[in-house]
Amino acid sequence: MYPDNIIKIGRVEGYILDSLKRDGALHFTLLDPEYDDTEFVRRVVEAADNAGTDAFMVGGSLGVGSMSAEKVVKVIKETTSKPLIIFPGNVDNVTRHADAILFMSLLNSRNTYWISGAQALGAPIVMKLGIEPIPMAYIIIEPGGTVSFIGDAKPIPRKKPDIAAAYALAGQYLGMRLVYLESGSGAEEPVPTKLVQRVRSVISVPIIVGGGIRKPKQAAKLIRAGADIVVTGTLVEKSKEPKEVLKKVIKAIKSTGKRRTKRREEKRNE
Ligand code: 1GP
To answer: Model pTM?
Structure first.
């Protein structure tokens, strides 16, 4: 007999898949755990929650220790009932009280630490704390920013969608159930839509895109290209009116997603 927890889809992953089926596309809000100002975190979480975000992610690649992550996670849990997912920058980002962790391998890193080393160190902690791991391929696209430097990545050139597609397909074949295309937090431009299209044409697992998404139009274009989940971080952190800005971005994501579900239904009924 095989232990069934090897392939079991957990509560948060189930929520993601069900929500995708219903809405066609989702929005996740990323918060940096290095914030000291808990009131600020609370305000941002409230704003994102009211604007209709689907889940919260906590993570960062620089200056994050377990203490700060723990504090931010606590505030988010007190403020919202939406899932809280760790987006780990390193092993010490694994904190209790989170609902799930994107258990990811930075596939295009040059350093085995970021491909399987950190994962081996983190896995027993994830098990001990009982956090739901969601296997994910993490792929960095140029420019890649801080995470590219820290993760010792060989960022995929923006004009080479075939390379991105090959990495994404490798991730899917390795059993990863999400693929994250990252252009780096605060990037001037998001991941190119052509690249997302190419990746979509070869894989069937949900595609997450993040890095440099600031405008509703950019988010809608990425969804139309085949992305399933759009992540924004900087947008809400830097804005004076986080709720208004997020509302517009989320509205664009949801209306594009709805069109996708409608098309799928029509196809089924043909
Ligand atoms: C970074 O993809 C995320 O890992 C979010 O990027 O901060 O640019 O929204 P931004």
So the answer is: 0.96
